[in-house]
Every structure is written in C-alpha cells, then in structure tokens.
Amino acid sequence: MFSYRHAFHAGSHADILKHLTLIHLVEYLQEKPVALTMVDTHAGAGIYSLTDGFATVSKEADNGIYRLAKYAAEYPVSAGIENYLSHIQAENIDGEIHAYPGSPFILARLLRPQDRLKLFELHPKEIDILRHNIGELKQAKQIDIYKEDSFTRLKGLLPPPSRRGLVLIDPSYEDKQDYRYLETAIEEAMQRFPTGCYAIWYPVLSRRESAALPDRMKKIAASHKRSWLHTELRVENAPKERRLQASGMFIINPPWTLEKQLAESLPILIKALSQGHGAQFLLKSFEA
C-alpha cells in the first residue's frame, strides 16, 4: 500500500475532474455561515512540484493541467473551469504552473475562520511532507492531521458539531480491498450522518470492483433515501495503454447546482483533454 505516491499523477485529468467538482461542493456548502467540517481521507503530500521529482517521471500534467490551461488561454471555458484554474494559479506566482495543489491545499485555502479540515495519511514519507507543507499555511491551526486508517476512523468524526460536513474519499485503489473498505466506511458514515455530502473519487478500470463501485454507491444512497450524482471523464479509449484513461466521481447528497456546472464543463474538458478516439463523459443524477 505504501508504493503509491500521488506526485506521479499530480495535475492529471483525474485531478482536474476531482478538484473541479470538489471546489464547487465546498463553495456551495459555504453559502451558509454555519461552520463546515471537511475531511480528506487520503491526503497525500498536499502540494506537488511539476518541475522536478516524481511528476517529471510520469509527465501526466502535460496532458492534464498544462493542456487545459493552454486551451483556456485560447478559447472560452465555463465559469467552473475558470474558477478551478484560478485556484491552481493561486499557488503559482509568475503566471506559469510549476506547482499543483492537491485536495488538502485546495480545501485549506477555502477555509473560513469557522471551518475545520481533517486530513488522513498513512504513508510514512508522505505524512511528514504533508505536516511540513500544511505547517506553512496561515490556516494551519484549523487543520488536524492524522496518521491513522481513515476508513475505520471516519465514523468517529461524524456527525460534526455543526452538522455541516463534506467528506472526500479518494484512495489509490492499488489494494483491491480498498473497494470493500470504502463501501463499509460509507455505509457506517451514512448511518451516523445521512445528511453529509460525500464525494468519492475512483479510477475507471477493467477491474470488476471498479466497474461495480457506482452501483454499490447507488444502493447505499437508495437505502438511506438520499440523492446522488455520478460523473465520469474519459480522455482516451486505447486498450493497450497502461496509463489511466478515465476516472469518476460519485457524490451522495450533491448540491442541486453541481449537475448544471458539470454539464457546462465536461464537454469543454473533452475538447481540451481528448487524446484520440473514444473520449467521452458520463453525467447522471437521482433526486430522492
């Protein structure tokens, strides 16, 4: 489980879908002044260099954030994409993109004084980097970092005192057991905090567990009579390509505005990020 380092994938098309969605969720939930508690179950290092280290090995940002930024400089994009790009540019001071903020930094920058952020990371090297990176932020006192198994610890954090909460669950899924752990964690979380907003990221793979994940999440949402939104972004359909070609987000209790925002943004992402035949997106929702 400790072989995975998110720096290899920083700024990829999967990050774009995840963070575009995440920013909208947070900003919607913050429309009310009540304190918001946010949880990132697999935090990683927080922020990543795109000009040295692991990111230069995979070069996934080349077909991700760099490609999108170039497209946005030449063509009109949706308000959601513009907003997302502004959060990325905020971590870069000269107009160029040298660093990519992961979910912890994006969430930290969005904290209001009344909000809290809770980060989980088990990787023995990543957590030290995460603690250092978070310690550099002015919001550090509002952020708790745990070197614990988030799947088992999550239910103990719910419901938050204000009963306003957002949970991002985005494991690497390198261990097939993550799918089972995820399902158990969501079911336990929904029992304790059914009105929370849950954002689940997953890779779209030929693996049976990956294909079954959305339907399993739908069953859990249905058992608690909750609404859901399901979206996927595929940038390529090349059977022999080993790199990740598609990923998805499944949201339980999504804001009503999210589907419209994604409906405007996903076609643009296809134009900007397509790497050949088979690029497409999926967007479905259910109102309980």
Plain-language structure description:
The chain has a single domain (6-286), classed as Rossmann fold (3-Layer(aba) Sandwich), CATH 3.40.50. It contains ten helices and ten strands. The chain has helices at residues 13-29, 55-58, 65-74, 79-89, 103-109, 126-135, 150-153, 177-192, 208-223, 258-273, and strands spanning 37-40, 47-49, 99-101, 116-120, 143-146, 165-169, 197-203, 228-234, 246-252, 280-286. The strands form two sheets. Strands 5-4-1-6-7-9-8-10 form an eight-stranded mixed beta sheet, with helices on both faces. The chain has a two-stranded antiparallel ribbon with strand order 2-3. Helix 8 (177-192) links the parallel strand 6 and strand 7. Helix 8 (177-192) runs parallel beside helix 9. The relative contact order is 0.17. The mean pLDDT is 95.
Name the structural class.
alpha/beta
**Radius of gyration from the alpha-carbon trace, in angstroms:** 18 Å
- Multimeric state: single chain
Share of residues in strands? 15-25%
Q: What does the average pLDDT come to?
A: 95
By CATH, the superfamily comes out as Vaccinia Virus protein VP39
The helix count comes to 10
Stretches with pLDDT under 50, minimum 5 residues: none
Largest sheet: 8 strands, mixed
Q: Which architecture per CATH? A: 3-Layer(aba) Sandwich
CATH class: Alpha Beta
**Shape, principal axes of CA atoms:** globular
Helix amount, in percent?
Answer: 25-40%
Q: What is the strand arrangement across the widest sheet?
A: 5-4-1-6-7-9-8-10
Which series of helices and strands comes N to C? HEEHHHEHEHEHEHEHEEHE
Distance between the termini: 37 Å
Total domains = 1
| Number of strand segments | 10
Output the CATH topology.
Answer: Rossmann fold
